[in-house]
Write a structure and sequence with these properties.
alpha+beta; four-stranded antiparallel beta sheet; 62% helix
């Protein structure tokens, strides 16, 4: 007769030998994440960022403290259609492109507005930032009689020499880190599942076996 239990044990031992080691899950996660991150970095075109600065200056009849409040206001106005409609003429791009590419920032301590533009072309990023600065400065000049505050150019945007977006190497490292983290989480979950399976299949002596053992004592 064929020894089925022995054959089953040999089959189980053979299958266990084919099972990859636990660390291979972590290595696979790191490799897959690195490949995906690197591919994304290569496929995504580099982005360039340029920033220009304008400063709010009160007139002689205005309260100097009012310049700070108007700088905050002009920081919000700079990305509105009334300003971007004039800026598109000097930037050479549609208003929609300016709306998507230009951001402004103000400081609670200084009456200054930072106008930042992002583009896949470094020269266009600088042109858009300077165009919006010029447009909002002219808008402030036209309303000077009512606000007693003007805007003046503090620093023009220059053409960036390097992209502001992460390189393919950086995205690959980020992807590898994320893949390694996911692989580690899988390794943490697998032993618990295996313990539950082994615990659930553990043999428990039946009542008859327990009775026989009691009779032999």
């Amino acid at each position: 007769m064929t020894d089925h239990p022995a054959g089953a044990r040999r089959a189980v031992a053979f299958l266990r030998g084919l099972t990859p080691p636990p660390w291979s899950v972590l290595a696979a996660g790191v490799l897959a994440g690195g490949l995906i991150g690197g591919a994304y970095g290569l496929a995504e075109p580099p982005a360039y960022t340029a920033t220009s600065y304008v400063v709010a200056v009160p007139t002689k009849t205005a309260d100097p403290a009012s310049a700070l409040g108007f700088a905050q206001a002009y920081g919000r106005v700079a990305t509105q259609l009334a300003v971007l409609g004039d800026a598109q003429v000097w930037a050479g791009v549609p208003v929609r492109t300016l709306k998507e590419s230009v951001r402004t920032a103000t400081s609670p301590d200084a009456p200054m507005v930072a106008i930042t533009a992002t583009s896949t072309r470094p020269d266009l990023a600088a042109d858009m930032a300077n165009a919006v600065s010029r447009a909002v400065t002219r808008h402030a000049q036209n309303t000077k009689a009512d606000t007693n505050v003007t805007l003046e150019s503090f620093a023009r945007a220059t053409e960036p020499a390097e992209p502001s977006s992460p390189s393919a190497t950086v995205t690959a490292l980020v992807g590898a880190s994320a893949g390694g983290l996911l692989g580690g989480l899988v390794l943490l979950v697998r032993p618990r599942q295996g313990w539950r399976q082994r615990g659930g299949s553990a043999a428990v002596p039946g009542p008859a076996v327990a009775a026989d053992a009691h009779g032999q004592l």
